[in-house]
Amino acid sequence: MNIWLLTDGKMGDLVQCRGIAAHLIAQAGGTVEERTVAPRALWAMLMPFTPIDPRENFNQPGSPIAPNADGEWPDLLIASGRRAVPYLKRVKKLSQGATTTVFLKDPRTGAGTADIIWVPTHDKLRGPNVITSETSPHHITPEALEQARQSGVARFGTHSHTVGVLLGGNTVDVNYNAQTITKLAKGLNDVLNSEGDTDSASRYLITSSRRTPYMLNKTVSSVLSNRECWTWDEEEENPYMQILALSDVLLVTGDSHNMVSEALSTGRPVYVFRPDGLKQKFHNFLEGLEDKGAIRRFDNSLEPFAGTRYDASRNIANTILDFIAKRAH
Question: What are phi and psi of 280, to 5 degrees?
Answer without folding.
Answer: -60, -35
